[in-house]
Amino acid sequence: MGVQEIPRQEWIRFCNDYSRQHEGWIATIEVRGTDVGDRVEARGLPLRGVTYEEKGTDQGSIEIYLDQGVDRNEAHVVNHPTRVFVNRDAGMDQDLEVDADDGTKTFVRFENKGQSNRDARI
Asked: Less Cβ crowding at N or C end of the chain, within 10 Å?
């Protein structure tokens, strides 16, 4: 199916659904941008969830939470998101891309597509 853009009016529902479907999947967060270069923000942590916090019409943030263990989450915040894309393969959501108004692109990539952290240890 390839890459699909998620319309802004669907971001809240999409983030909730995406979080439920991918909770526990082992993820890496990468950021790319001319001002920040290419860097890995977090690697090999289970996804806890993705939320869209709407604040006004053109503002807000998308927050990506990864599990760091006992009551600790790694949060990556994309301020002023402009576009959200999901890569779908065989009808299943895969990697996520969030573009921001500062030109940065944040990617959530999964190391073990279709397996949660619990499944990966079995």
From this structure: C
